[in-house]
């Protein structure tokens, strides 16, 4: 495998300067979280994200209103410095040449600010849409195919990622290959990220302790692959609700938690990583609003319904794995993720236009950029 030099901005919020503590990690955020019938608010959210000094703006791609290529193009034209990340897309949702073409076109239009986040998803979803599920081998080979195509190389391939007799992008811009970030939870996925990717995106609702365990797995895989220490950038996703009334806080944090915990297999994996009892998932899934739901609940249930379901979750599952409360309380939580080894925090749930008060109250001062 060929390692590409990651094109990261290195922005870090550092209100801890002069305290003897390590600098705080860079901070990014998601735009358009969850279901959105209208993607146009991304413009205002992107402008505000850059005004706040966020390092990266992430989009969780969904078919219909959140196509990453279109959104990335829009963000790139109203911002100048913020990195633009898909968090996440999938290798099999686009032909390899189409994915590489989209990425390099977006690189040219944004002057090299694109980050491509890749996920595995679940086999049932791929069966439903008639696409092959991901395997570890197909993911690793697809990463190499992507990089080679982005460099303008001719590719002939027949293997786990498919059969491609002759692939090449006839023209590529004078831009670096976008960093590839792999979304992972379990040790196998974390190991793949540590060996073959430029970064790893950790799942929302991991406790700081679970993040620390994940970091150790990634760093060991990185070492085993004889890669430079710290070459894999670790993004910890933190769902945040600061300064909101209790009802809105429950909707932002609890409603989002439900969408992850209710998925069979996926909820169990999150519970195990955090050291929680999987038996608590039974009460959640028995709620009337979740009966008969097989896929993601937020695709078939309203925000209000998900908020109602959230009352079935143990309070620990929400508060120990997210940032809630005052700005100062949230920044203390961020410090715990920093101490766990995260290089960058990815704030989720609250959109950039809702984060202004948070960035004005870290330790009583506006965070400085270093």
UniProtKB/TrEMBL annotation:
Residues 1-25 are annotated as: Disordered. The lineage of its organism: Bacteria, Bacillati, Actinomycetota, Actinomycetes, Mycobacteriales. Gene3D superfamilies: Luciferase-like domain (3.20.20.30). This is TIGR03857 family LLM class F420-dependent oxidoreductase. SUPFAM superfamilies: Bacterial luciferase-like (SSF51679). It comes from Gordonia hongkongensis. Pfam families: Bac_luciferase (PF00296). Keywords: Oxidoreductase. Residues 33-344 form the Luciferase-like domain.
């Amino acid at each position: 495998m060929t390692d590409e030099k990651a094109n990261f901005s290195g922005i870090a919020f550092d209100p801890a300067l002069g305290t003897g503590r390590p600098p705080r990690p860079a901070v990014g955020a998601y735009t358009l979280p969850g279901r959105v019938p209208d993607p146009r608010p991304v413009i205002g959210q992107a402008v505000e994200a850059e005004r706040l000094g966020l390092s990266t703006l992430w989009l969780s791609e969904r078919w219909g209103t959140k196509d990453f290529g279109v959104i990335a193009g829009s963000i790139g034209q109203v911002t100048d410095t913020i990195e633009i990340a898909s968090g996440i897309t999938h290798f099999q949702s686009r032909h390899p040449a189409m994915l590489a073409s989209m990425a390099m076109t977006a690189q040219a239009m944004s002057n090299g600010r694109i980050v491509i986040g890749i996920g595995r998803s679940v086999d049932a979803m791929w069966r439903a849409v008639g696409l092959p599920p991901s395997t570890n081998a197909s993911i690793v080979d697809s990463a190499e195919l992507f990089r080679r195509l982005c460099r303008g190389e001719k590719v002939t391939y027949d293997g786990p990622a498919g059969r491609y007799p002759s692939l090449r992008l006839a023209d590529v811009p004078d831009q670096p290959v976008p960093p590839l970030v792999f979304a992972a939870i379990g040790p196998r996925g974390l190991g793949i990220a540590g060996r073959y990717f430029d970064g790893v995106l950790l799942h929302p609702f991991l406790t700081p302790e679970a993040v620390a365990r994940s970091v150790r797995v990634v760093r060991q895989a990185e070492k085993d692959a004889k890669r430079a220490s710290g070459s894999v950038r670790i993004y910890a996703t933190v769902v945040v609700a600061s300064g909101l009334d209790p009802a809105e806080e429950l909707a932002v944090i609890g409603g989002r938690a439900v969408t992850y915990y209710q998925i069979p297999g996926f909820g169990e994996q999150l519970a195990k990583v955090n050291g929680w009892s999987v038996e608590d998932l039974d009460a959640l899934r028995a709620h009337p609003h979740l009966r008969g739901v097989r896929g993601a609940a937020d695709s078939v249930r309203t925000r209000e319904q998900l908020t109602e379901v959230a009352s079935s979750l143990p309070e620990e599952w929400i508060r120990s794995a997210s940032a809630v409360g005052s700005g100062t309380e949230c920044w203390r939580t961020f410090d715990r993720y920093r101490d766990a080894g995260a290089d960058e925090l990815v704030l989720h749930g609250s959109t950039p236009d809702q984060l202004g008060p948070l960035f004005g109250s870290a330790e009583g001062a506006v965070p400085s950029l270093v």
